[in-house]
């Protein structure tokens, strides 16, 4: 995990919302925002448990190192209740690695796990932010993230 950099949850799910307070979460992970609804470890749910769970709306954000060449980020997501707005994977633009626009993949209506993926060709070595958005503004909404992959 150290290679991925900071991992956290932003309880202000507005685009560009800045993390506010920080709380330590397990082995060096940082959770920022509402301590009553943090990113939690779900030992039951997931294609290969455990998975990370966000209760209510929020954003999990972390950095991934990038080398030049074709790159793909993928993650599985499952959410309940099955209502819009659906969860999304977002990689904000980063001109230093050749990304001139934000990359976004959004889940569709469904009850099982879905794979969200974004691809691009990096022009230089660097790092990108990865954001996992739980978008449904209900406190009873549950979003599980599982099996992150990067190539």
Q: Rounded to an integer, what's the Rg over CA atoms?
A: 15 Å
- What order do the strands of the largest sheet run in, or round the barrel if closed? 1-6-11-8-9
Question: Can you write the helix and strand succession as a string?
Answer: EEEEEEEEEEEE
Helix- and strand-based class? mainly beta
Distance between the termini: 16 Å
Commentary on this structure:
Helix content is 0%, strand content 50%. The strands form 3 sheets. A 5-stranded antiparallel β-sheet has the order 1-6-11-8-9, with no helix packed on it. Strands 4-5-12-7-10 form a 5-stranded antiparallel β-sheet, with no helix packed on it. A two-stranded antiparallel ribbon has the order 2-3. It starts with 6 loop residues before the first strand and ends with a strand. By secondary structure, it is mainly β. It has one domain: Jelly Rolls.
């Amino acid at each position: 995990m150290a290679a991925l950099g900071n991992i956290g949850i932003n309880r202000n799910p507005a685009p560009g919302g800045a993390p506010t307070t920080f709380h330590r979460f397990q082995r060096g992970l940082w959770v920022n925002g509402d301590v009553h609804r943090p990113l939690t470890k779900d030992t039951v749910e997931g294609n290969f448990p455990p998975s990370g769970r966000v209760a209510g709306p929020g954003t999990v954000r972390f950095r991934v190192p990038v080398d030049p060449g074709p790159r793909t980020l993928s993650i599985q997501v499952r959410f309940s209740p099955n209502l819009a707005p659906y969860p999304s994977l977002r990689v904000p633009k980063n001109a230093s690695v050749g990304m001139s626009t934000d990359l976004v993949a959004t889940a569709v209506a469904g009850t099982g796990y879905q794979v969200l993926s974004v691809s691009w060709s990096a022009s230089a070595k660097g790092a990108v932010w990865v954001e996992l958005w739980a978008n449904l503004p209900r406190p009873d909404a549950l979003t599980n993230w599982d099996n992150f992959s990067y190539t």
